[in-house]
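the two lines:
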Amino acid sequence: MEKETIFRIKEGDIEAFEQLYNEYIEYALRTAISITRNKPDASDAVQETFIRVYRNIIFFDEEKPFKPWFFRILVNECNRIMKRRPKVISIDKYLTNNSVYSKEDNYLFEEYEDLYDAIQGLKDINRVPIILKYLNGFTEKEIAEILDINVNTLKSRLFKGRERLKKALLKMKERRIRNG
Amino acid sequence: MDEKILDRKIKESLLMKTNDWIPLKKEIWNNIQSRIENSTGSAKVRIRRKNKRKHLFSSLGLMAAVFVIIFAVSTNAGRAAVAKIKDILLPEKNIVQDIEGDKEETKMNLKEGSGYVLYVDESNYQMVKHDGKDRIIPKIKLEPTLPEVYLEIQHVKGKPPMDMVPLIEYKLKSSFENVENYGTVEQPIKAISLHAHNELASHAPVVTYYIVDDNQGGSYVIEQHLFLEAAEGHGVRFYHMLKEFKVVNPQE
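prediction for all of em together
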């Protein structure tokens, strides 16, 4: 199905490209919003990614899986856009500077907010693999290919990322309890 | 927290916090479509596409066909193809490489060679011409007592990789005691690879060849020349540069 779509795009069929767009846009945007941390940058990154895919698809080998190739371009675009901005603050500063949510908030919602904030407070080398793994369901091998790192390095970054998330969640929970 | 519960919650939190993607969908598509139309020089792609199957080529297909014709008849076909692929690849990108146990973020710049492109770490290397071949050499000169360090790329027309293998093997055997033919390798690039060294000493030269099919009946012969101690430094840097080596085929 995807092979056929890609073949048609290579032949200049814009309807096939729109079909591919509709198939990929949701997770492309979700991923870009998570990586860039804001919608305007995410929107730019996704737009540039699809343009690059359209112009570059003639060189794509249909025998290879398309999804990792697509997300590799997307992650590169997100990184390129993020480099234009000042660096984000570290998780410790993030936790210090961000007050907890009101106790009236729904507990589950609050927990998801905390977890998302904790993910966003991670260093990029831990954060981006976690986004790719949990949001897109990529295997470790696929993420390693997308990020151009070896699988062992990736495993270590995922592990450390999860450990830091656990610690951050614990801190947030303690702070909530302290604040009543 | 239980590991599986944490996994589920990470996924759910990412989904929940990115749910506002929907309003962007239409706007982004409109921008993309407009840019495609502008780049093809046609403002009527949207209208034409409904009838495109009645035509031999859509406007985009026609563009592609024009490119193919231009490439087929022009002596500058390879250069045009390289220019085209250069336009669509990122001019620079950052990679993280493991240099002697330390992670190092490196900026790589897109460079053009004879019928190919690759990313070069220009903070540490420069691309020069050497006997008509492209050679990537360290910017900092090594001590004269050390073996040379370079990555050399040569386009050999009319000789496919299988024809090049015995020639290179013969050449290597005249200088090295140990010559191995690794056969086809997938990393850092798909190629036939040959490896040669003498004794295993830190300053002993180590040569690796990658012979890449140019898809036009010829080959790209890539020679990585360094010494054993440099394998973890220059070797890793060359590896990452070669990973992005792309032959630009004018027929495409």
